[in-house]
Design goal:
Helix content is 48%, strand content 1%. With 435 residues, the protein is mainly alpha-helical. Among the domains are: 27 residues, no CATH class; 120 residues, no CATH class. It has a two-stranded antiparallel sheet. A hairpin with a 2-residue loop joins strand 1 and strand 2. The longest helix is centred in the first third of the chain and has 37 residues. The radius of gyration is 23 Å and the shape is globular.
Length: 435
């Protein structure tokens, strides 16, 4: 209605309306919305593409050249991306509902078995605390995806976030997505943008929330064929008609008649990621080479070479990536907590443009925060180290934020208090690193 306020005022003043200009304005507004939505969906497709090789348990993951901790860190980032952005790309998603659940579920299993064997959610005092147990009373039974159950799930999720923020360590807080997937299954990603309380508790049409092509449960569609399936008991959640799906292959979204979002937006030329480097732009680093890149950028794409052979080598000497990360771990955790907080707040926005703005603001503050931490902890280190220690998904998401500025963050999430706390911590703990 806000877009039509000007024409309405003109009409009340008995002034003529230029209908061609009005139609042009509406078309342009819809086009801007298309670009913003496509950016979110392109970022989701990127997270999906990065997740597949990680959960395939390739033998080179975890070797001394590329420690398992890096894979775990990036996989946590991608799991958060999958849970946060999937609902905003209904029917424009490059993967179906079922294969999206496969990625979410397999990511959770990989993190549980490979990354958190000794400190997972089942062993964590944080998630067995009375505060979190009380939150579980709000959690609906997984299965039926409707507005009422999604509203209840979001109350449960917000309760959990609030509880762990005050009672759990930063390491335990990093497990929250695994906990939500474990407790709520498909609701953990299908319901994140359904935060409005319904007018009644009636089971409203599932298609309103999950789309006509989405399965509303994580159970097999044809349970009778399950006994003859090759899927094991642990793979029940990843079957269709009793057949094991396996690992999906990311493909471009299909063109649907009448669908205004035919696919992800193209990447800008010379962006430092998918081709030659622009001379006036700082290259953006990353842990993993970007799928499908041309091979002439900062790092070649792994589509043309073995996956492990194109990873950048660590800097040598006392200021290696491992040493710098170890020394900055405590202070860097404050930066990551602030970023997680901004991503949680983004869940409460309905439009893709607002989601993107809040996410970008959080990324700006995170990058500034990490820059301050690394400059203090690792003075005189290789300038390329800063781009290497940032999570791959952060670098890639920052590439989608070039149309946003810090000035657009003034009416959004306020990170000033968190940033001041981090700076205070830097000076408070500076003696730890003065050797």
């Amino acid at each position: 209605m806000a877009r039509l306020s000007l024409p309405l005022v003109l009409c009340q003043c008995n002034m003529s309306i230029n209908w061609s200009q009005l139609i042009t304005l509406l078309i342009f507004s819809n086009f801007i919305h298309y670009i913003q939505s496509s950016s979110v969906c392109a970022k989701l497709q990127q997270c999906q593409s990065e997740t597949i090789p990680m959960i395939s348990q390739q033998s080179n993951f975890g070797d001394p050249k590329w420690p398992l901790t890096y894979t775990c860190r990036n996989l946590r980032d991608n799991l958060d991306c999958l849970l946060s952005l999937s609902p905003y790309c209904d029917r424009r998603d490059s993967l179906t509902s079922q294969t999206t659940w496969t990625l979410v579920y397999k990511s959770k299993i990989y993190l549980d078995q490979k990354c958190d064997r000794e400190s997972g959610i089942m062993d964590s005092p944080c998630y067995r605390s009375n505060e979190v147990k009380k939150c579980e009373n709000l959690n609906p039974s997984p299965g039926s995806i409707n507005q009422y159950n999604c509203w209840r799930y979001n109350r449960f999720r917000d309760c959990v976030h609030s509880s762990i923020r005050t009672t759990c360590t930063p390491q335990e807080q990093n497990l929250v997505n695994q906990y939500l997937v474990d407790r709520s299954k498909n609701m953990s990603w299908l319901c994140v943008n359904m935060t409005t309380q319904p007018s009644s508790q009636s089971n409203e049409s599932d298609e309103i929330i999950v789309g006509t092509n989405r399965k509303v449960s994580n159970e097999p569609l044809d349970k009778e064929r399950l006994s003859s399936s090759s899927a094991s008991t642990n793979d029940r959640d990843m079957t269709v008609s009793g057949q094991f799906i396996g690992y999906p292959t990311v493909v471009g979204p299909p063109v649907i008649n009448g669908e205004p979002f035919p696919g992800p937006a193209p990447y800008p030329p010379n962006d430092g990621l998918h081709g030659g480097l622009a001379p006036d732009r700082i290259p953006i680093g990353g842990r993993y080479p970007y799928p499908g890149s041309s091979g002439t950028g900062l790092y070649p794409g792994y589509g043309s070479q073995p996956y492990d052979s194109v990873r950048p080598n660590y800097p040598t000497g006392s200021m290696s990536v491992e040493i710098c990360l170890e020394r900055s771990r405590y202070l860097a955790q404050h930066c990551e907590n602030a970023l997680l907080q901004s991503q949680r707040i983004a869940h409460h926005y309905r439009t893709p443009s607002e989601v993107q703005r809040v996410i970008c603001c959080g990324l700006f503050y995170y990058r500034d925060c990490m820059y301050q931490v690394l400059n203090h902890v690792c003075p005189g280190s290789d300038p390329l180290m800063f781009s290497m220690v940032l999570p791959f998904t952060v670098n890639q998401q920052l590439a989608t934020c070039r149309s946003y500025t810090r000035g657009q963050c003034s009416n959004g999430i306020n990170h000033k208090s968190s940033f001041l706390t981090i700076l205070l911590s830097i000076f408070t703990f500076s003696w730890i690193y003065s050797f």
